[in-house]
């Protein structure tokens, strides 16, 4: 599934084309691409002009000119990529096209945005922004409060790997970047989140932000053709991974063979030497 860096790459690409454009028509080729929408999406979007493209964590949405952008009840168009969703500029001959949007730019030029989704878990949904109010801030937001995020992490009793994947605690982190952040911070994925010191939780958040920024610089992580940017190009951060998918390979820090385990049903990669695990209780005072 695309994580924060991959969604941000798509957001930036889409914003370059769609800012100021007005919707003319939307064709939904597969109803799963618009599941949950009670009214026809084309009727809801026709005549709407895009002011900008926003993102929080793995969630992206279009803001419209006539809306008050501070109002949590304002209507926006959510675009969730799901497991395999792609946004492409222009028409495509892919057999997995689920939705096609026709717009025109401020200069009157036609613009086509295509939604491709092989596994059909993604969707477009026109709804109040408050629909995603439960999603926690992500580490790359300008006003991100890392101390508050660290407290949310430490309030959970589950394995820290599972807590990092909880989008109500810290959004944007998925399986790849959770493994990478834990490796960078030297924290075992099975360690109970509530036993982390505040300083350790802060370090983990900062490492997550660092690795996601590096991934963003390299266009995200692509293991197959399911993740590409709006021009169909793959990212190449997979060449720089330190933990994810490296089972049996030497740790880049100590040369110990990397290991794989399953935590809460998720494949997890770690160095048994750099990321040791000793069951413990929460430290007194939480310093």
Automatic annotation (TrEMBL):
Organism: Corynebacterium endometrii
An annotated Gene Ontology molecular function: zinc ion binding
Subunit composition and interactions: Monomer.
Binding-site residues, DNA: 96, 119, 156
Gene3D superfamilies hit by this protein: 1.10.8.50, MutM-like, N-terminal
One Pfam family matching this protein: Fapy_DNA_glyco
Gene Ontology BP, a term: response to oxidative stress
Record HAMAP family: Fapy_DNA_glycosyl
Residue span, Formamidopyrimidine-DNA glycosylase catalytic domain: 2-122
Protein name per Swiss-Prot or TrEMBL: Formamidopyrimidine-DNA glycosylase
Active site: 2 (schiff-base intermediate with dna), 3 (proton donor), 58 (proton donor), 266 (proton donor)
Key word Lyase present: yes
Keywords: DNA damage, DNA repair, DNA-binding, Glycosidase, Hydrolase, Lyase, Metal-binding, Multifunctional enzyme, Zinc, Zinc-finger
Protein family according to the UniProt entry: Belongs to the FPG family.
Superkingdom of origin organism: Bacteria
Cofactor(s) required for function per UniProt: Zn(2+)
